[in-house]
Design brief:
Mean pLDDT: 92
Number of strands: 0
Structural class: mainly alpha
Helix content: over 70%
Shape: elongated
Radius of gyration: 18 Å
Number of domains: 1
Length: 77
């Protein structure tokens, strides 16, 4: 009985963690796209930002989103 409970608990944790990781990847890569193409998408709050800081933040989001995507594909939890 305890073994099946632990196994279900581990499965639920793995599913929850996978959903969380995929959601974070989508948000981070989406934010990178918004930062890089904010002027073309006509988003005023992004277009009014300093170009250097916008590209810097977009690059950080892109790198961290790529790293999270790597962790999602590896799934070592």
């Amino acid at each position: 009985m305890e073994k099946s409970f632990r196994e279900r608990q581990r499965k639920n944790y793995t599913l929850m963690r996978s959903i969380y990781d995929v959601t974070m990847v989508i948000l981070l890569l989406g934010m990178a796209v918004v930062m890089f193409f904010g002027e073309h998408l006509k988003i005023e709050i992004v277009a009014d930002m300093d170009k250097t800081s916008r590209y810097f933040f977009g690059a950080i989001c892109l790198l961290y989103g790529g790293f999270r995507l790597y962790l999602v594909t590896k799934q070592d939890y």
